[in-house]
Amino acid sequence: MKNSKINCKNIFNRFILLSLTLCYVSTAYCSNKERGTKQFFIFDAISYIGKPDLSQDGLQPVYLMYEVTLTKKESDHSSKVILDFNKIERQARLASLFPETMISTDIEQWYYEPSLTDQEIEQEFNTLFSYFRQKISSKITIGNYGAAPTALCVHRYYHPKMSEDSILMTWRKSNKKRWAALKYADVAQPSLYIAEPDIKSWIKDLQITVKEIKKHYPNKKIIAYIWPQYYDKKDSPYYKQFISPHIWKQMLEAVYIYCDGSIIWSSRTDENNQSVFWNDLRVQQIWEVTKQFIHSHKEQIVFPGKENLSISTSASQKFNIYLNTSYPQLAQYGVQTIQMINEGDLGNCANETFIFDVAKAKQLATKALKSSNTPICIAPTNKKRSISDYQEIYKLLKKDNGNQIWQIPSTSLSKLRLYNSNMHVNMGSWTINTMNSSQELKKSTDAIIINAPIIDNDTIAWKKELYITVKEAQFKSKGKPIYVYLPTASLNNNYKIKAMEWKTSLKTIRQWCNGIIIHDIDNNLPSTNSAIWQETLKFIREMKNTVD
């Protein structure tokens, strides 16, 4: 009896040991299998002010194109939008600079237009996506935010008194037209924003959403939109509050299990309509959890490849350096002076708009130095200007004057980054702001001037922004030289330009452009910022043999 008990005990222990071994082997096998097959992408559509480039941390860029950047109102039907191929062509040209970057369009109004059939919506998206593939690359990845299905979690929150069956029935009905947007998309990009802290309910809705997509399109990859704040339903007690790090972690893990990737999106404000900065404690808590998530799945998460920012220029191309203040010691190096006229001296500013004053402009024109060797440069006030203003200023200053007249556009990608720290999100709005003016402005300036202020220490973002702007300038330059306008003071009042950022900017401009206009804002650069003054002197001396 005793031996029998011992034998039973031994058998039981062996069974436990064997079970644990099999469990370990199974886990190891699954882990190895996952490492070999699972790929997960995280895309960066985060717009918190001051956000740095996160590509080195594993986040992929995504080119987000909102509805206004792709459509226009139909002439005889103001509530209806149609594709605007002038805008689309511009967007495609910019997107072609980064052909590996996923595109996410955001056209939603068609779903609510009763006159449009499912087939018509399907055809519109086919036309749009086909155009992008033709103009950029057949290998691009493109999808549309707002395609089926809509956020079930949000739908549920809007209908708290409905039964489960009724919620699912009305949700599926609301998605009927939206499936048409998904047929020609490479990926599904469903919205999975969370409306309340019930994470179990949210995960259940995620599972239903994925199942619904797979029912219609079994082979579509799913890249889910998530937002580390609660959905912006105005009467919600959670309106735009930050999600707790604990819930955010569960959201990331759930999306990892059921989807092929996520687009982390954000607005720029919180529940009190206050701007949110990258260094905000709430943001940093979310980011810390995100970094931990990336680290725990580092073998499955696909990091972005290195971007090739290359602009071809002639090795023998001469480089011009212009400075608005005359420093005698620089003349020996060929540095040229320039007459800098502030835009404010040519008119008045009302709110965000520049109002041209003809009398002021005429007075300045008579005082301007009549010398073909001294260009006149109009420094922007960062206010909106009409095309007619550019034309009138050019005519007045050019009359009886042999000077080169250079006008600088007020809009820049760097300026936009002061309010939205995501370059690929900004590209769409920058395109719209400059699309009409850029084509006409070239007629009112003797050189193409790029506005490229330094706003912080993120030289990676600044170089990408300059690259995009130079490429766009080359497209419309028609043989005119391309110069970069670089002010010595930052538009960001909380940041003073450092020597390293200044040095990087000078060298990059030298590689890509015909010259540089250094605007000594206070006319006393050696005293106001001695560090960048010394870098300027070094750069000028190095350029002695190539300065025009």
Class inferred from helices and paired strands: alpha/beta
The profile of the biggest β sheet is: 7 strands, parallel
Question: Which fold does the CATH topology of the largest domain refer to?
Answer: TIM Barrel
Q: State the end-to-end CA separation.
A: 105 Å
- Structure summary, number of beta strands: 19
Mean pLDDT: 85
Explain what you see:
By secondary structure, this protein is of the alpha/beta class. It folds into two domains: 38-296, TIM Barrel (Alpha-Beta Barrel); 320-542, Aldolase class I (TIM Barrel, Alpha-Beta Barrel), CATH 3.20.20. Helix content is 41%, strand content 15%. It has helices at residues 2-37, 85-95, 118-135, 152-158, 164-174, 199-216, 245-258, 281-296, 358-367, 387-398, 413-417, 423-441, 459-476, 499-512, 525-528, 530-542, and strands spanning 41-45, 60-66, 71-74, 77-83, 102-106, 142-144, 187-188, 221-226, 261-265, 320-323, 336-337, 339-342, 347-350, 353-356, 376-379, 405-407, 448-451, 482-487, 515-519. The protein has a seven-stranded parallel sheet, covered by helices on one side. A five-stranded parallel sheet has the order 11-10-19-18-17, with helices on one face. Strands 12-15-16 form a three-stranded parallel sheet, with helices on one face. β5 (102-106), α3 and β6 (142-144) form a beta-alpha-beta unit. The radius of gyration is 29 Å and the shape is elongated.
